[in-house]
Amino acid sequence: MGNHPTIEDVARAARVSRQTVSNVLNTPERVRPVTRERVESAITKLGYRPHASARRLRTQKSSTIGIRLDPMSNGISGSVLDSFLHALTEQADQRGMRVLLYTAADPHAEMAQIRKLHDGADVDAFVLTSTFHGDPRTEYLIAGGVPFVTFGRPWGVDDMNDPQHLWVDVDGASGVREATEHLLARGAARVGFLGWPSPSGTGDDRRRGWQSAMAQAPGMDAATLAALTITASDSVTEAQSAVLRAHAAGARWDALVCASDSLALGARMAAASVGLAELPIVGFDNTPVAEAVGLSSVDQRLTEVAAGVLELLMGVSGKAIVPRELTPGESHRLITPRLVVRRGDTGVDLAGAP
Amino acid sequence: MGNHPTIEDVARAARVSRQTVSNVLNTPERVRPVTRERVESAITKLGYRPHASARRLRTQKSSTIGIRLDPMSNGISGSVLDSFLHALTEQADQRGMRVLLYTAADPHAEMAQIRKLHDGADVDAFVLTSTFHGDPRTEYLIAGGVPFVTFGRPWGVDDMNDPQHLWVDVDGASGVREATEHLLARGAARVGFLGWPSPSGTGDDRRRGWQSAMAQAPGMDAATLAALTITASDSVTEAQSAVLRAHAAGARWDALVCASDSLALGARMAAASVGLAELPIVGFDNTPVAEAVGLSSVDQRLTEVAAGVLELLMGVSGKAIVPRELTPGESHRLITPRLVVRRGDTGVDLAGAP
């Protein structure tokens, strides 16, 4: 490192002008073959590499993707975005792209960050996470012509197929339906659902998966389904309290499906304390915690999500950063998650029959 | 975004040459005040901002810190480096620095990445994590004159005070000693230690903290201490098996101090299954899992670690990226962790007296 050969060193070694070296690098077709070979040989011999900033200035490309790093939530579910970041960085690296992190306290601060990074040509494209209904960021990016992909679908009705809004999301309803059907098939009849308060795009989507599976089961009218539903914010202790309150009020379940591993862990602790240590419980996110305590869970397949994000940005094999001509069907990917069944630490199959 | 004013637009508006605008930006002291004011006024009016790549090329500064993102470990302890990354990114942002991620399969691949990023002036300085005895990366960086700080001390004996190797680390021995002394003060006599196989720089350091606290307790000879020690690799199930094996072989403890939360969770599950659900157990790392299951743990204070890293790189208030003149005592920070005491999910104080 330290001192590197400069373009002047190459020019001197090849006995050409600085401009000729520059032409060989940028418009080789304009340089006579015999001269080009001499310059290329000098480049190789000296180990000259064009300065990245100069190259970026020339090409207006930084080969860099920007992504916001959310404040540390100190929670269990927060690890999902960290896992996604790992998958994205690893796969971006394989495609010659880097990942630049930034922070922002709210969507408006994030828009200011995006503007700064994009204006400076520091970042070619952005990956937005934690989308929500009425999210101002996507409209802003579309208006500014800034390439981006969201991990998370647009939660408005009209823009799901907008070819200007590229997105990758996980089909939460499908994952929760699979978990519920698995429990029903193993003999559970009253499968409860522990989810977040409505409205929540992600949470309501997951609850719909449970509802659609339960609608197939015999005797499941609206009142019965309502009696099987528990609501809590995404915290272990809130979930624990909510399950204990519902149990004290007489609610009974053969099994529980939960909108997150945090909720599932709270349910697990509540169940154990009322003599239901063997109640089958399934979480969502397949976090390290679920693995550690032997909790079945729905895995979001974040490697697939990251691959989808990069494919939408760069094409399947190419280096293109959007915009390209995309049909509505090509502008998003909906990943089907998979159920991971584990035996719990009580020694019984937690996702098994009661 | 889209079209931005160029340096030519500013020159035209201020009725000066392109070179004069450039002088105002780079060497304003050389420009006559009346001209400078006219150019500055045009810059403000047009909202011109110098292109970041051009600025970087000029200053050879990228305002960017590079850090390797380790492959996803899917474990509990892996969240420590993610937490550190969050703290580093937030504080770097407050100092006008960005964080660029890269991946590397091994130390040699990392050195190649570092060379590429540093040669391209993409990154001003590097933060290295997961240092180990005989780590080739630090020697390489010192030889190349590349600014860096390691999170993790040099594990060799001679280089702890090398002013060329800046480092921040957490005093693991002190944290484990505090945890052990806490348990002894609450009435436990036979405090066991569950740690990783030796040699392990970090693991041996933590075990020394337990040893030094136990050495103060009455009747603790080498044989007793050996009988109180359990070893397992950093996995919940390995820890669970190791504790069960030791218990079956007749080992008895009043409490357990563990080198990580993964080990502590395994110990917790093992203890519960042999009727010792109330055995006080303390982990290390204060991960989300420890918080979720109510396990006492030693917190590394990663916000302090990140602040120390940035202070070593940039000075307490300045923008300097090392090298500066540093005395041996100024070239590192050893952060004292703190014990977080929690009540467990069994309803008893897990860190309390037996």
TrEMBL record, chains A, B:
Entry-linked SMART domains: HTH_LACI (SM00354)
Database matches in SUPFAM superfamilies: lambda repressor-like DNA-binding domains, Periplasmic binding protein-like I
Superkingdom of the organism of origin: Bacteria
GO molecular function: DNA-binding transcription factor activity; transcription cis-regulatory region binding
Keyword annotations from UniProtKB, A to Z: DNA-binding, Transcription, Transcription regulation
Presence of the UniProt keyword Chaperone in the record: no
Domain HTH lacI-type: 5-59
InterPro entries in UniProt: HTH_LacI, LacI/GalR-like_sensor, Lambda_DNA-bd_dom_sf, Peripla_BP_I
UniProt xrefs under CDD domains: HTH_LacI (cd01392)
Protein's name according to its UniProt entry: DNA-binding LacI/PurR family transcriptional regulator
